[in-house]
């Protein structure tokens, strides 16, 4: 590091700019494919209805975060246009084309992605209530100020990325220590691989590893999230300590974060959360001598990035205080623009996996009917089917289906989902893996509650099933559309 410039972090900038842009492309693609059916004009929770409710009373307007659809009437066509534009800009950034120009060009591109995706998240309701949404928004905002290849990265923005990774990792570590006892007695990962929201193809193998390994996983997690993040800031000591040691410590800290996140990627399906953490951790990776010597940062860009640093110095008071709070908030934003957020995940681990299975029939008598299951793309259903790897792509309906058994009552969107299945709504059916009725309307649907667990190796050899499930009860009795 040299004054305002961080030439040794040009490789880090390349990874950050291209990686964050790639994640935006995935986010916009996920929205393009799912938003109309979930939240569109005829969705399960129509966004136009939310916008109309906010507009109906001036006192409600503060409840809606910034969105273009506050001023531009929402239509599914406009939503698709926004997503298509976001994908195009993201792909250009992944290719590195805007970065070839002056620094304001990639800045404008990333701020456009930030504002465009915020416009979606702000009206996304429960389907966009995940911590990695605000993580992507904050990462996109910071990436806008990394500059272009015409100059080295600014120190202040690189440090803000370290602060982001620190809040992400240390916040997650503290929420665990303060959360369920299973994180303190080292048993959390004896359950987590089996009960996580959407297992991946290697989750069962991870679950079947011995208990001593799972205890080691928890210890490693605590080390990676509670100890290592402090060392991400080591490169700043290079201003005062000669030699490569500060940079090497930062590299090592980043390597630990990346390694632990790769293990989570292999053993789970957490949308782009882990991939984003991997990309962001590269902010601490320096390559001495990689930058072009003798090139500084123009005064105008120093002023801009210093203003961003000053803004974060003010906004960071709330997340910093939250980290020290006994009742720590998880995945919370303290301002309308979702900057300097608080992060965290899995403060407690569920011990039993409960799945709600939706069934339908075309028979007239539901009591004597032959019922067939609707199979989802990601969530467990067919006990013989191997879970698939979807991350960083986000299956929003599948994720919310996991949350349903954790609540006290069924949510409104789930009731609408059952109605859409009775109507054989094509957009809704495209969210599922299979439609047992090939586009025809069922006469009845019902919901059965099951307990799922992974089979052990002997059970798998006997049956070929990866899951064992036990029926608990009928959650929703057979329902049908009213006769016309």
TrEMBL record:
Protein species of origin: Microbacterium mangrovi
Matching PANTHER family: LIPASE MATURATION FACTOR (PTHR14463), LIPASE MATURATION FACTOR 1 (PTHR14463:SF10)
Pfam families to which the protein is assigned, alphabetical: LMF1, LMF1_C
Subcellular location: Endoplasmic reticulum membrane
Domain Lipase maturation factor 1/2 C-terminal stretches: 339-473
Xref: InterPro entries: LMF, LMF1/2_C, LMF1/2_N
Keyword annotations from UniProtKB, A to Z: Endoplasmic reticulum, Membrane, Transmembrane, Transmembrane helix
Major location category of this protein: endoplasmic reticulum
Membrane topology of the entry: Multi-pass membrane protein
Transmembrane segments: 20-39, 79-98, 104-123, 154-175, 223-241, 272-291, 297-320
Name this polypeptide is given: Membrane protein
Family as reported in the entry's similarity comment: Belongs to the lipase maturation factor family.
UniProt domain Lipase maturation factor 1/2 N-terminal: residue ranges: 128-285
Signal peptide extent: none
């Amino acid at each position: 590091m040299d004054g305002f410039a961080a030439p040794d972090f040009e490789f880090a900038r390349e990874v950050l700019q291209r990686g964050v842009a790639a994640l935006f492309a995935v986010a916009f693609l996920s929205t393009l494919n799912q938003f109309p059916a979930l939240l569109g004009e005829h969705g399960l929770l129509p966004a136009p209805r939310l916008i109309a409710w906010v507009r109906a009373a001036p006192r409600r307007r503060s409840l809606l975060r910034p969105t273009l659809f506050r001023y531009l009437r929402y239509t599914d066509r406009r939503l698709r246009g926004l997503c298509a534009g976001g994908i195009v800009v993201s792909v250009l950034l992944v290719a590195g084309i805007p970065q070839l120009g002056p620094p304001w060009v990639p800045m404008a591109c990333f701020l456009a992605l930030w504002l465009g995706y915020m416009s979606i998240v702000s009206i996304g309701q429960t389907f966009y209530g995940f911590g990695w949404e605000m993580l992507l928004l904050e990462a996109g905002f910071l990436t806008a100020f990394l500059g272009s290849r015409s100059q080295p990265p600014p120190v202040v923005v690189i440090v803000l990325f370290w602060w982001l990774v620190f809040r992400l990792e240390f916040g997650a570590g503290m929420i665990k220590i303060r959360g369920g006892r299973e994180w303190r007695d080292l048993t959390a990962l004896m359950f987590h691989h089996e009960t996580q929201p959407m297992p991946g193809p290697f989750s069962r193998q991870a679950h079947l590893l011995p208990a001593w390994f799972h205890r080691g996983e928890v210890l490693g997690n605590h080390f990676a999230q509670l100890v290592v993040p402090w060392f991400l800031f080591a490169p700043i000591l290079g201003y005062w300590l000669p030699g490569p040691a500060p940079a090497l410590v930062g590299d090592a800290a980043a390597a630990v974060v990346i390694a632990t996140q790769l293990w989570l990627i292999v053993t789970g399906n957490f949308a782009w959360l882990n991939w984003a953490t991997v990309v962001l951790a590269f902010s601490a990776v320096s390559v001495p001598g990689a930058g072009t010597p003798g090139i500084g940062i123009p005064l105008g860009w120093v002023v801009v990035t210093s203003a961003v640093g000053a803004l974060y110095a003010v906004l960071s008071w709330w997340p910093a205080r939250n980290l020290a709070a006994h009742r720590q908030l998880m995945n919370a934003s303290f301002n309308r623009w979702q900057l300097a957020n608080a992060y965290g995940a899995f403060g407690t681990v569920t011990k039993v996996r409960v799945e709600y299975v939706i069934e339908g029939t075309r028979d007239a008598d539901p009591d004597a009917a032959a019922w067939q299951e609707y199979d989802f793309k990601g969530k467990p259903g067919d006990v013989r089917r191997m879970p698939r790897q979807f991350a960083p792509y986000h299956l929003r309906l599948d994720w919310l289906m996991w949350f349903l058994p954790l609540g006290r009552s069924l949510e409104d969107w789930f009731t609408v989902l059952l109605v859409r299945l009775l109507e054989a709504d094509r957009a809704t059916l495209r969210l599922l893996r299979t439609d047992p009725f090939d586009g025809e309307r069922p006469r009845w649907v019902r919901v059965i509650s099951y307990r799922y667990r992974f089979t052990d190796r002997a059970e798998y050899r006997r049956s070929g099933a990866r899951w064992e499930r036990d029926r608990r009860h009928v959650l929703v009795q057979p329902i049908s559309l009213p006769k016309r």
